[in-house]
What we know:
Elements: E1 2-6, E2 9-11, E3 16-18, E4 20-24, E5 27-32, E6 40-43, E7 48-51, E8 53-58, E9 63-64, E10 67-68, H1 73-82, E11 85-92, H2 100-111, E12 118-124, H3 130-141, E13 146-150, H4 160-173, E14 176-180, H5 184-196, H6 204-207, H7 211-228, E15 232-234, H8 240-251, E16 256-260, H9 262-266, H10 277-281, H11 293-303, E17 309-310, H12 319-322, H13 342-351, H14 358-372, E18 390-394, E19 423-429, E20 432-436, E21 439-440
This protein binds dihydropyrimidine-2,4(1H,3H)-dione and zinc ion (ZN) (2 copies).
Amino acid sequence: MTTLLRGGTIITGAGQRRADLLLDGEKIAWVGRGPQAADREVDVSGCFLFPGFIDAHTHFDLDVANTTTADDFCTGSRAALRGGTTTVIDFACPNKGESLHHGLDLWHQKADGRTFCDYGFHMTIDDWNESIRAELPDMFAQGISSFKMYLTYPAMMIGDRDIYWALKELKRLGGIAGFHCENAGVIDGMIAERKAAGELSPASHPRTRPPYLEAEAVSRLLRIAQAADAPVVIVHLTNREALLEVDHARKRGQTVYVETCPQYLLLDESVYFNEDYSAAARYVCAPPLRDKAEQEHLWKGLRRGAIQTVSTDHCSFTLAQKDMGREDFTKIPGGLPGVETRGELLYSYGVAKRKISAAQMCRVLSENPARLYGLYPRKGVLRPGSDADIVVYDPGASHVIRAEDCVANVDYNPYEGFVTAGGIRQVWLRGQLSVENGKVLVEAPAGKYMARGKNSL
Length: 457
Ligand code: DUC
Ligand code: ZN
Ligand code: ZN
C-alpha cells in the first residue's frame, strides 16, 4: 500500500521546503515534487510535516515514593502518540542490588505489547561493581546504548568514584550517560531545616532545591566527566547558572549534551506559592520550576544550539496522588505529565513566537534525539528509507489545552488554558495513520521495541 502526502512543507533540521512524501508500507519511499502514482493521496497542503517527535525522557509505570505513576506504557504512549511523539525512550530502573538484566526484563514486561508508539529504554545505573560492569556489553547487544545516573535521590544516587568508573567503562564501550544533577546533601539539610521550622507546604519545595544546587551538581559532574574523558548528557537542565557550567566545560574541550523540558521553558515557580495546596502540589517536580527569568535563558540556549533536546520527563500523578503531601511537601510524588502537549507547546510558544525556528524545533524534538540515542536515520528525518513517522502540523488549527480533552491517565494538565498556535492534524506511525484531529485511531498497541545503536550527534 502506497500513500502520497501531497502539498505540505517538509521541515528538516536545516530548513524547510515544499515537497510531497510517498509512503510505501512502513517506510518513506520518495520525497520530492512532481507526479507520483500512489494507492491513495492525502492532501496536506498548508501543513508542516515534521519527522515523528522523539521523547527521550519518560517515566511510565514507575514506582515513586510509595506510589506508582498514573501513566503506564499503555496510557502514556497513547498520550504520547496523540501529541506527535512516535518514539519514547523510557528509563528502565533496576532496584538497588538487582542486576541490569533484571531491570531490563522488568521494563520489557511493562512495555512489550502494551505500547502505542515505538519505544526504547535507557538503563539506570544505581550501583557500580564487577557484576554490573560485566553486564554492560550485553546491554549494548540488546539495544541499550544510553544510561542514566542520579546525583540525588537516596534510592538511586551513586557516588563520585562510581560515576567516574562507570563513565570510563561506558566511554570504552561507546555508550553515553545522562545525569540528574542536584546536590543531594545540601538539599537534605535544607529540607531538615524547613521541617524543624514547621514549613511543610509546597512553597518549601523550590526553596529547598535552589538553582545553584543544580549548577553545583552540573559543575561537579562535568569535572568527573573531564577526569573520565567521557561525553555526558545533562538531563532536564533548568537554569542559566547550570548552563554556564556547561559552557565552561565545552570551552575546556569536553563533549556535553543538554536536555531541557517544556515545563522549564513555559512554567515558573510562582505556582508553588499558591495558598491552595492542590493548585501548588500538582506542579511539584525535581528539579523544581524556576524563576520566570530563567525561561529566556533556556530559549536562548536552544537558539544558540547550547541545548540539544527538549524532552518531557513525563512522570504523571493524579491529584489524589499529589494529595499525599498535604502534611509534608517531601511526600508529594514528584513529576509532571507532558507527553501529550510537548509538540504543540514548542510550536506555539517557540516557533510561532519566533523564539526558535521550525528547523530548530525539528532538531530538538526529532533529529538530535535520534542521533544522540542511536536511532538516526531510521528515525528523526523524513527521507527515503526512514520509518514513515510523520507529524502533520496545521498552523491554522489553534485550540485551548484542557485536561478533559487529553487521554493521559491524569486529571489535570499543567498547561490548562494555554492557547496553541495551530495543532497536530495527523500522526503517522510507520506508515499507519494513527491520530487524526486529536482522535487516536489505532485500537491495539502497535509500538515496536527499538534496539538502538551508538550516538552520532
Ligand atoms: N524528577 C521528577 O520530578 N520526577 C521523576 C524523576 C525526576 O527526576
Ligand atoms: Zn531527573
Ligand atoms: Zn526523569
